[in-house]
Amino acid sequence: MLVNLKLEKIYDGLLYLADAARNLQLLQSHRHIELEVNLVLQGTITYVVDGLRFSFSPRTLLWLFPEQEHQLVDRSVNAQFYVAVFKPALIARSCRTAAYNSLKRKTNEQGGVLSTLLKPDSFELIEKTMNSLMEGALDSDLLNREAGFGQTSDFSFEHRDPDALNAGLHYLLLLCWRSYLVGKATRDPVILHPAVCRALKLLSEDTTECSLKELSKACGASKSYLSRKFHQQIGVSLTRYRNSLRLSRFFERYQHPDRMTITEAVYAAGFGSYAQFYKVFSQVYGRGPRHCLHSDVLTISRPVT
User: Fold this and answer.
1) Whole domain around residue 279: which residue ranges?
2) What pLDDT is stored for residue 236 in this prediction?
3) Diameter over CA atoms, the chain
4) Closest CA to 35 of 77, 92, 79, 99
5) What are the φ and ψ backbone dihedral angles of 15, each rounded to 5 degrees?
6) What confidence tens digit (pLDDT) does each residue in 156-169 have?
7) Same domain, 154 and 166
8) Quick check: is 303 in a domain?
9) One domain, residues 197 and 281
10) 3-class DSSP state of 147
């Protein structure tokens, strides 16, 4: 799915710090015309790309190219990682020599995710650069709450000093690529079973909340085999993954400009009852939803396991 990040002309890209403690939303499989870079600061994050599962630990730098469909399927409860995106025009202006030609590609020719474990000094320099570019950015709670940057809302990225941000993004892009080239290759990905790939696709698209029996039949596997294989390969159970998607859909509907009530958003997200939603929400965030959702502001404590 091609998504529009709604970046205004004044910005050459964007940068924000994703924090699992602030937001549990899992994005649908998607791509965008911008080149994306992630830097993992703590915890782990897990992507599915090209039928492969990749898990990334601290100090990992990873690249997602414009034609690469990618899906963030899990994050550890303490995960923090920077997300930076660069518009094609910035890349064209910044990458004028052969050393940076690879950044003009639309996809990773090797397949999967291009990634590297950075040397400690390179990691520290990139993190400090990203930290400095956050001066003048929107509130982190807001940026995390609007993960996906408002595909169904009127939200758009803003920064108080666009010129400084753009200059910093130019430097950051080249710095990340130079650091990638001298870093250490990450571990091999997990090749996903076709039934698991099919389940991810169906669950991402499912608005009718099919049963496990219906899902396993559509994937050509038994309920027990699909549940076991999914947990083994994705790293989380089918139930936890499905509940994460439901919570994501709840937030999307609750924060939509045509604001739903909490109860309306609960059922629209696929929960069978408010009691089920309350239990899932409380297990994840440590408090009930009505204590966290108030005055159009989402206030969430650190997720719990």
Assistant:
1) 192-298
2) 86
3) 59
4) 92
5) -150, 135
6) 889 999 999 999 99
7) yes
8) no
9) yes
10) coil
